[in-house]
Each structure stands twice: as C-alpha cells, then as structure tokens.
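Incident review: delayed structure delivery

Summary: a single-chain prediction request sat in the queue longer than the usual turnaround. Root cause was a stuck worker, restarted by the on-call engineer. No data loss occurred. The affected request and its eventual output are reproduced below so the record is complete for anyone auditing the incident later.

Affected input:
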Amino acid sequence: MNADKRRQIFERLKQANPHPTTELEYTTPFELLIAVILSAQATDVSVNKATRRLYPIANSPAAIHALGVDGLIPYIQTIGLYKTKAKNVIETCRLLVEQHGGHVPRDRESLQALPGVGRKTANVVLNTAFGVAAMAVDTHIFRVSNRTGIAPGKNVDIVEAKLMKFVPADYLMDAHHWLILHGRYTCTARSPQCWNCLIADLCEYRPKTPAPDQGL
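Output delivered after worker restart:
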C-alpha cells in the first residue's frame, strides 16, 4: 500500500470520528492502567461492569492494595483469569506505592516492570493517559493492519514497527483507537462488513467469491 492510500484511509477515519478514545471507563491514569490489566482476554464491557463496582470503593494504589487479593476478587470475578489478574493488580499497586509514590510512571520500561503489564498495555497507557504517540497492537489492530494492507506483518512487533513508520505523523496519536474501533465494529474477524466500510475502495482485502457457473 502506498503512502497516499494510507493518508486517505486515516483522513476518512478521522472525518468519521474526530476524537476517538478507549471504550474502557476511567478518570485517572491509574484507573486506566488497572482497567487495561483487567482487559487482557476480556471485553471492555465486562471490565467496565467490574470497575463500576470497584472504583467507588477503591481507585488508588493504596486503597486497592489494602483490599488484598481476597478483597479484590469479588469485584473482578466475572472477568476471565480473575485470580491471576487479582494477584497482578495487588502487586502492581504495591510497587506503585513503594517505588513510584503512588503515581503511574510515564515511561515504557517502568510500566512494563509492573506485573501484568506487557508492551501492549504500556502502549495503551502511554498513548491514552499521557498523550504519547504509541501503537498498542491488539488482535483488532493486527487483523486490520494485515487485511487492509496498511501494515502487514507476521507478528505484533512487526506490525507495530510498520505502523509507527507508515502512519502519517499527523494521524499517529489517534491511529491506535481508529484501528481498534474499525476492527471491533466493521472489519470483524469472521464476517467483515465490507459493504458498510468507509475505506473499502482503498483496502487491499479481496474476499473469496464463488467461481461463476460455467454451465455444461
């Protein structure tokens, strides 16, 4: 895909949604961090239901750490892998209190040193909470990047590097959200809605169609 096509794609995505953001509900960088940790292999809807119960009770590193694993579990047990996530969240809160003064660090290395925080989670926090141009390649972004031809790659690291290189600089800050939302609601995994896609004419995806009937 050439640079002009990429620019047209992101221009259309911007026109359709000028101010995209995450669908996770949060009010502080810490609330976002915890929500993203909980969202691994879970839907944003399920995470929001849990944090709506949790955050009115505890929404700081010290307060959540005070709950302990057993105290946290009842709030998040409807989310997949909740036992492991509870341990990671409590330990992350401990480290934030002891090493970062109760604040979420603003650099990738420190973020990734927290339990349950990988590169994707760190990139979400950097981009969404701190306004850093970062690309958190989840399953939706990986699929859209490969299917459309925007930034094809065999793994998430390759796709991330290509997106950071090829997305026009003036669209880079919001590209993460546009691509996730496009993959979640239009360029879906099993039945992409090409008929309802605002970038269909720019996309390099060509669905397989049955061969025409040749008759006898």
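Verification: The first helix runs from residue 3 to 16.
Action items: add queue-age alerting; document worker restart procedure.
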